[in-house]
Fold each of these.
Amino acid sequence: MKQRAITASVLIIGNEILSGRTQDTNLNHISLTVGSWGIQVREARVIPDLEEVIVTAVNDARTRFDYLFTTGGIGPTHDDITTDCIAAAFGVDLVESPEIAAIIRRRPAPPAVMEARMRMARIPVGATLIDNTTGGPQGFRIENVFVMAGIPMVMQAMLGSLEGKLESGPVVRSRTVTAYLGESQIAGALGVIQENHPEIDLGSYPFFKNDRYGTSLVMRGTDESALNAMLEEVKAAIIAAGETPQDVQQG
Amino acid sequence: MKQRAITASVLIIGNEILSGRTQDTNLNHISLTVGSWGIQVREARVIPDLEEVIVTAVNDARTRFDYLFTTGGIGPTHDDITTDCIAAAFGVDLVESPEIAAIIRRRPAPPAVMEARMRMARIPVGATLIDNTTGGPQGFRIENVFVMAGIPMVMQAMLGSLEGKLESGPVVRSRTVTAYLGESQIAGALGVIQENHPEIDLGSYPFFKNDRYGTSLVMRGTDESALNAMLEEVKAAIIAAGETPQDVQQG
């Protein structure tokens, strides 16, 4: 029986990404990581730190995909509103997590500072914790939504702790071959090859490198033999166009 | 009279971003560029090369924001479906643009290659062209939607050609100051400062650098005097917490 594809959406929460102050790298890391586990990221959104926008986006994505991964907005300051928004999206209250509170209390601080930090101990009722191997407060999971930090190092630690704990489907594999050709020179052949293999996604990504035009032809799908068959056809098309297939890669 | 804010959404179209094969940089470039013109990017979506998804996302964003900028999917191969999807979203047909066709015909090619290239001359009825100073085929605009290439160098050339041609609102300016403090140490003060200046957005972005914890405090808004007033309050809060405000920047 064919395994069902497991899908995910990513929500990048933070004004600093939309203003251009910060270049997001979390989406790329999440896509590659969960992709290797057999979870396919199908959509991502970048949204500001605004309650109404976050709640709507969470409720939209959690019902359309198997999993939703969020990054950003779970720190101790006034602009960290993600946890409150997740609770609002699920219509539940916030409770203090004794495990997170214990981690926060390990580092002594004056009462006002401790009070700010304890904001990070609040999780929605029904949530479970996501380990944070950097030693800081944990993230949390509620149903199919995973709420992680925005700082890449912390997000990566949290995501890594989920390995092997999520439902997974077939892993999407890839074949890549480079042709030093303009895309148009093999566009016709590629269209035919794609039609012959509807279950494999064939992408053409042009580049200009070392004073030469070329295109990377990327095949992605879950069926290794179909991938290999398509790769042979693409290589033949490159040769038919008068060039040599180069830099074949398997992923 | 207060100028109205002009808002935008960005649609990053392409399987290669969602698979993690390619790290997107177009959103960051668009946000910074149009931001400097007085257009605020309020949301971005990363979506796959699937007609139904693209059409829905285009129609959603073009009605909710003043402008929509799309990148990706306007090349000559079978997986370049953005132009078709934009026409479908607006319910109009495609026509051949004589200006784009002339540019394409400048470089001679065998008939089959030319036919593939001519795919790029198709634009929706009612669209106007977006210059492409790299010398390749143009992008296009239809109503408030701007359709640009995915290759960063080409996208940047197209976007740059729009400077001075779009409606603009007040430019969002910023003040940034660094505090070598844990966020929690000034969280309380920041919350009060934010409440005092609801028209300015105060963000706290923690980092770990040179073996020290710190946070960048970023103030964003269109009122320079309110920004300056908030900056002074934030600096005072850092001093009150026992540290020295550092690296003040104005943007």
Note: Chain A touches chain B through 63 residues (CB under 8 Å).
Amino acid sequence: MDFRYDERTQELQRQLLAFMDEKIYPAEPFAAATDEWSRPAVMEELKAEARRRGLWNLFLPDPEHGAGLTNLQYAPLAEITGRSPHLAPEALNCAAPDTGNMELLAQFGSPEQQKRWLTPLLEGEIRSAFCMTEPEVASSDAANIATRIERDGDSYVVNGRKWWSSGAMDPACEILIVMGRTDPDAPKHLQQSMILVPRDTPGVEIRRGMHVFGYTDGAHGGHAEIVFDDVRVPAENLIAGEGEGFAIAQARLGPGRIHHCMRLIGMAERGLELMCRRAVSRTAFGKPLAEQGVVQEWIAESRVRIEQLRLLVLKTAWLMDTVGNKGAHTEIQAIKIATPSTVEWILDKAIQAHGGGGISQDFPLAQLWAAARTLRFADGPDEVHRRSLARRELRPYLSEQAN
Amino acid sequence: MDFRYDERTQELQRQLLAFMDEKIYPAEPFAAATDEWSRPAVMEELKAEARRRGLWNLFLPDPEHGAGLTNLQYAPLAEITGRSPHLAPEALNCAAPDTGNMELLAQFGSPEQQKRWLTPLLEGEIRSAFCMTEPEVASSDAANIATRIERDGDSYVVNGRKWWSSGAMDPACEILIVMGRTDPDAPKHLQQSMILVPRDTPGVEIRRGMHVFGYTDGAHGGHAEIVFDDVRVPAENLIAGEGEGFAIAQARLGPGRIHHCMRLIGMAERGLELMCRRAVSRTAFGKPLAEQGVVQEWIAESRVRIEQLRLLVLKTAWLMDTVGNKGAHTEIQAIKIATPSTVEWILDKAIQAHGGGGISQDFPLAQLWAAARTLRFADGPDEVHRRSLARRELRPYLSEQAN
Amino acid sequence: MDFRYDERTQELQRQLLAFMDEKIYPAEPFAAATDEWSRPAVMEELKAEARRRGLWNLFLPDPEHGAGLTNLQYAPLAEITGRSPHLAPEALNCAAPDTGNMELLAQFGSPEQQKRWLTPLLEGEIRSAFCMTEPEVASSDAANIATRIERDGDSYVVNGRKWWSSGAMDPACEILIVMGRTDPDAPKHLQQSMILVPRDTPGVEIRRGMHVFGYTDGAHGGHAEIVFDDVRVPAENLIAGEGEGFAIAQARLGPGRIHHCMRLIGMAERGLELMCRRAVSRTAFGKPLAEQGVVQEWIAESRVRIEQLRLLVLKTAWLMDTVGNKGAHTEIQAIKIATPSTVEWILDKAIQAHGGGGISQDFPLAQLWAAARTLRFADGPDEVHRRSLARRELRPYLSEQAN
Amino acid sequence: MDFRYDERTQELQRQLLAFMDEKIYPAEPFAAATDEWSRPAVMEELKAEARRRGLWNLFLPDPEHGAGLTNLQYAPLAEITGRSPHLAPEALNCAAPDTGNMELLAQFGSPEQQKRWLTPLLEGEIRSAFCMTEPEVASSDAANIATRIERDGDSYVVNGRKWWSSGAMDPACEILIVMGRTDPDAPKHLQQSMILVPRDTPGVEIRRGMHVFGYTDGAHGGHAEIVFDDVRVPAENLIAGEGEGFAIAQARLGPGRIHHCMRLIGMAERGLELMCRRAVSRTAFGKPLAEQGVVQEWIAESRVRIEQLRLLVLKTAWLMDTVGNKGAHTEIQAIKIATPSTVEWILDKAIQAHGGGGISQDFPLAQLWAAARTLRFADGPDEVHRRSLARRELRPYLSEQAN
């Protein structure tokens, strides 16, 4: 057992921290000033600079297309980008949902699909959206997805309604990956498929952006409600084969959760840093907040909880690298359960230490909080994951009893 | 001891519930569609209708100007308006900060001040703002207020910077009540005064609206940052006398907190109602949420906590009526400590039961949550009130020990 | 609505507080010194004195046998006895389980049963136990009770195993009220009956006292595991009629919960008082605990929570008096859910403020804590009550949906 | 970074788990039956067997006297012993406070001291106590210790009062290590010394055992209150030199906390195991607890929290091994803050799942809970550690601000 980051990771951490200090943090106020659905003006400069520094596509384990890092190597880098989650991930071409979509195309896409969509995504020229969640069903169980994808000659025709399609409000978003049912009569886990739908295909109606506690989440390309009304795409747009949608979705979720959780830890570190700065600079009742017991408890608890979360996420990354996503299933659920709610707690305390300013646009805290709160739902609410993890924990006892 | 509402209260509850059902709830979607800083188009109709029904100025205990209700009679009515806090309070001319400002003018204003400002406020023709909090100081201690109000001939000249001046973004807002220091050399509690500043006075610069999470809180007239730069008003605009600002602020806070807390309880009831509706209509893992233990715990805990909160607020109202605001000091603090955080918890659970929809514009929950969260700061953060209440609790033990 | 205690209650409060100060608190150290299963030596003196002062059988609403107080009048008196729960309730002849047993006999007992058992209980000459919970079944659902009571000629024969039969370890305990099945084929709620079993009847085996976090709870007569092996009693020992056990149990539970909850509030007040005394007398890191923010938060939260609990319990008592136990069903559940866990929290903080002493025999806190913790189970665990209360809350929404 | 236990650790884990299954768990009921202050009869057999299997003195990193394991290697073994904390640690000669005392003697004892006391302790022939905490002062700050150790000719004379001297009630306890002030005028951290006091020295009065909730904690040798009244011991009994008491205490605490925390994790695993067994075997409301959402949440949360705690403790052990106890200071505090309260929470839920049985002597849960609760005080209450950790976290911000 060894808790040291390896050399390459440490080197990349140094480079990335320098990039944050020199480029990202200074760009933050500019970023805030841009309008709703376009990426901040400074973004193209940041991307060019990140690329120049070799901080590009770090998320992709496939060395042909990406940096070839393991999950364990990438995790601490994703954490650092989480300190400025509205700028840094995209600047490094490591922003959701593009990362998951690129992994998916690298792993399951045909050469033609890769050439047409993966290449411009890897170049940071376009963005993409992942259309899975539906308003009418509990989408945490993928088997419930009701959108239809029907074969008709050389085409597939898509009909359905999606929401929380993150990224789809971004004008640069050109491609949607849509999950839907190709065969409602197949066994439950073979009914679903995934298909590539260019955003400008006739019949694709981007209805509106969903709000997140008043935010449009423009820097993330928003969260669209989309209606697919007889949307026809060539048959070769299907990813892998019919009935493979569920399996692809499962493959996509593991790394996605690791990335989310590591960025959340970066958000928590940012919140704790801001809380400490506030504590040493603000006085109430004749002494700095830093000397008040209640604020000290918040700071100590935040530190203790962050350390625990980070170790659990890193161990999960290590398990994914050594025994595979399936072997790490329980741990992946565990980090999904523990991280958003804990980080939400930390950010709440950081907000409280800032008084009214904390909930306003003058600090990033309220927006970070909303992001953490949202992740208590993303990929299924906490309750679903706890239920599932408990059933796994109980399994040996049930077997024992059955004998 | 008797826990029954009196006859008049019960009659008003019936009338107000009918008004909610017939007019307010149906207007909610329209209200959401209007633009940021103007009141919803339907508002004037709602106000006219409320007035016609005798549901007007219920908050004002002074029978000459208002309904002449006691705090105990008004509290359950304020609760009902809290079920639709962006429409109902204003429709009844019972919205903050106007209520506090009207009370203040009714109690401390000169006949001329009352004629010029109280009358149109009571008529619902204009709105007002209360300018107390400042960005540079911990304003929970009113003695810290740094804005200057200086006598110069027949005028006072105001210089300073305020924020969280609720209501001031509303185009209908015509008058600001500003707290500031007239005599920095006086004893601490005699330094402050309050003065009436028409919003269009030269030197008044409304800088921007503060955001609350991502909301502008337009329906409440927003929360302005305002700079006062050599703002000159006639000397007769001073309220009561020089040095009375602190005493007036104290008098204003007690009823304000009761109103806030009762509306919060209405918000919690609304949240619980939505949670129950969702629970009976949404199925996950093969059975309705209503039959799932975790959701049942949320519902039960919400009910149990609401009942406790309501009783504490009602007792506080009763104390204010029977022994005065000063005698009810501890209880006023207690409800300020208990209510926002508890209601925040209930709304969080209601959101969680709604999945992604819960944090979006499709339900009122996220916005209600943000309002509850904000009230953990308003009139001083929870921590300040807990500290103060504890010191009072400890006082007899300290005396005992001193002897 | 009126939050004042009535005159008689206030007068009894004054008398009881004087009795606590003059007799009960001074007796506490002596009480601790006595051996395990016998009542403290001083108890007979305390009982005589309480009786002399008219503080006797206050719990019994029936004016023929008891003080004739309403639930609302008795509740604040029960609270006061909770401040010294190992001495005061018994000193006033108001200790569980005797109170419930006396109510039961007063309401359902035959004249002969009353003469034989109720009279000596009312005189404080003997004690009693209530034998309901069984180790093998989830006894929170009374319908699960498996003990058999079978008619055989002029006798009933009892067979079964009970535990947590509170009071049965006390040498003064002479009578057991046993719940068991007389007719397993009857409809579910008509299967059970209650019967009087003298503790010295052949076949009654008191196996052992159950421990409560290391305590034997000797002052309460312990909690016995009892085996009934062909225990034969005369047929006239049956209470009311065959099949009425469930109804009697329901009638017994409401007042029992009110009493428990009010005593718990007294325990919380005692804990808060001790926490405050400690806070003003103990110094750490150069200043008294009373000036440390974390301890101030504990004190403030304790006070705020106690006030809410008390009001909810009082309102429940008022409802029982005005609309009956059945009409107060939801509120009775609500206080059972809220009170033990909240008081446990307060006592935990009081313990923490005392350092190591807090968990030891040097303060009553650890024992009070164990009592509060135990009440999270008594009459069914919190989870059962929350489930039931939620189902009631959901009922109107389910009906609405069904239409 | 690597999360695998090394080979030697894995081999010892296998051996120790076998020993638990074959010897320890079967001995548990016998152990419970023995009387208060003597070690269970079976203990000598268990010790002989552990020794035979090479599972002896595993805690001692010094290869001359012990197993020569690193902290990181020993930690997972300590965890396993925590599953039966009243038997296993002593069976392996790895029980507190002997472990800390042996380390202390191995590191700071003179050859004579080692021969006289360390050898029989390593052989498991005698037991020892550590006498630091005092009733009159906040002993979490060691500088407060008031007991006097005064030189008088060839002797030292000890006067003072200690409590919570763990182990001292055990008849096998022969030696006390006492901390006290040799020079009240020295700088704060040089006033204290440690000295060896045979338990049968005249003037040593073992007053009583402190209770922990209702437990005497007999299996751990209890927690004594001891008065030292002119207790005279030879000068050579002083450990190291005058004024070194504080430094020795610091050296002793780090490993002590690691051991406590690892055993606590074992206790949590035991609690979770019992909760799962109960969940699959107990039915309420028509289905097993294992299928009820609330119980599933407890199980999932327990697993998620245990995983995080264990990783934090293991990382702390690794830091102690690689950068020393001083370099691991923050992490040692972090585990002390996080572990007892989290394990207490898990055990509380396990108890709740067991109904009344959970708080009784029929399951180990209540006793495990009491042990976890106690550790929220041992070596200073949580609040002290949080305060200290926060100050460390704030230090860089304070420096930054100072510049």
Note: DSSP finds eleven helices and ten strands in chain D.
